[in-house]
Amino acid sequence: MLRLRPLTLALCLALCAAAHAEDAQPSTQPALTEQTLHSGGPMPAEQQRVNFDHAELHFTVDIAQQSLDADARLSFSAREATDSLLLDLDPHLAVSKLSVNDKTLANDKWSNPDGRLRIALPKALAKGEKVVVDIRYGGKPHVAKKAPWDGGFVWSHTDDGQPWIATAVEGEGCDLFWPCIDHPQGKPDLVDTYVTVPKALAAPGNGVLVDLKEHGDTHTYHWRAKHPTTYAISLNIGPFEVLKGDYRSRYGNTIPMQMWYLRGHEAQARQLFAEFPRMLDFFERQIGPYPFGDEKMGVVETPHLGMEHQTINSYGNGYPRGEYGFDWLLQHEFSHEWFGNQMTNADWDDMWLHEGFGTYMQPLYGQYLYGDMPYFSMLQNERSQVKNAYPIVAGRSQFEEDVYDAKRGPGNDIYVKGSLMLHTLRQMIGDEAFFESIRRLVYGRPDPKPGNFTPHYATTHDYIEIVNQLSGRDLNWFFDVYLREAALPKLETRQDGNTLTLHWQVPHDKPFPMPVEVQVGDKLLTVPMNGGNATIAAPAGALVIIDPRSKLLRELPHVAEYQQWRKEQAEKKAKGAK
């Protein structure tokens, strides 16, 4: 997801987010229940007992009434014996009929008072048995006030007054418009979506287009996606045209590419579409095969800024020309096909695996395109945003808002601090081990090829174990300080005559034997910091530069001073506006 607001792009983000705010604001709507507001947390035992085999979702959208009429046919297999199913669905979407294995269930056998849909099965399932649940429901879905920073439907229109509709539900979860398991580990194995819209409109979706059926003045798009992330299933409706092409992958397969854009935006869309092949080349060269090559690389123009909807990434960045020579938003959202959709965090507490890696892909892409200048420029931009208010990883199961809300969790640090930590790790273990560690994290194996891997879940612990194995070292101390402490390590230096003393000051005095490069005169020294301390010869008056190649993520007083000044300027501006 894109919640990061880089300084150089703050105005763009504000304008893009506000561009259709008037359309997105409902006059009145009921408040979401606490259950529906939450996404993730400890997974209930009832949900752990089943595998989500298949979701068949039928949506008919009443644009004039801004309402939804839907049917969901959901298939599950029992991992262990169970006598109930527990799903998530916004209770404001009223259920009118519910059946199990094609037999209507009495109303007293199911309930959904707060958004947790509990279904008593007519017959208990033994391990390995299957069950199919049909749910007919509908109503006015929750409207996002400021997508994608909060979730829901976006009811907008084009400049010539035609409907333009999108969904973005990462924060509050999939239960805002379909009955699901609203947890990172709740992904169905297969999803078929059927979206019925007026013939003047199109409905691009996740996965591959299976069929397009005509019904008088409407038509129905049937899309099929394998192993989609729950919040990455989306609805998109508008007067779209589509650009299509094929990418010949270095792995021997051919990847379909699609760009769904608003009529009248063809020139800009073609310019953006031209970036697709080099982005694919970068990721396949640097990380590995595009995970959904048998489906598509897809992008759809949306009335909100963006979101990593699997194989149909939302894009509302306005087609700018960027200072780094590429569209940073598209590149970030596309990175989530690897970090989010192929490798999915097992818990929201592991969300830095999506956002930290996803953010580091922009400096890496700048380096791939134009060398070190954009790479370090983007890292410097990230460095000025690190807050260090909360640890990136809490070490316990979390709700989405516990992570993304900067008042209660790490917020943007899962992006920028995660990215900068990966830069430091890369410098410490070297490119070969670093990029191999990413491949194993993403694919679960060192030799990914199209057809020999499927999407999977991963944890912070999984990645640490991979790095330890590949580096041949125990680097738990590295991750312990950067991920589990709020404050950054501080390198203290003291010059006594011809001797320079270095000392790592670390929260809770944790071990941190991070080597430090020091330039003394025209010589570059690599200083071991066993025990967190070292002394080196440095003649008085000699030029001394600590970390001259900017490898280390550490506390820097001038950054803190700049951040404080920026905060004061913002406060003055806010007072002046009142």
TrEMBL record:
Q: Which residues form the Peptidase M1 membrane alanine aminopeptidase domain?
A: 330-481
Q: Which cofactor does it need?
A: Zn(2+)
Q: Which organism is it from?
A: Dyella japonica DSM 16301
Q: Where in the cell is it found?
A: Cytoplasm
Question: Which residues bind Zn(2+) per the record?
Answer: H332, H336, E355
The record's comment on cofactor binding reads: Binds 1 zinc ion per subunit.
Name recorded for this polypeptide: Aminopeptidase N
Q: Has the keyword Metal-binding been applied to this entry?
A: yes
**Positions of the catalytic residues:** E333 (proton acceptor), Y415 (proton donor)
Chain intervals with Polar residues compositional bias: 25-38
Extract the signal peptide range: 1-21
Q: According to its UniProt record, which reaction does this protein catalyse?
A: Release of an N-terminal amino acid, Xaa-|-Yaa- from a peptide, amide or arylamide. Xaa is preferably Ala, but may be most amino acids including Pro (slow action). When a terminal hydrophobic residue is followed by a prolyl residue, the two may be released as an intact Xaa-Pro dipeptide
Q: Record's PANTHER family?
A: LEUKOTRIENE A-4 HYDROLASE (PTHR45726)
Which EC number(s) does the record attach to this protein?
3.4.11.2
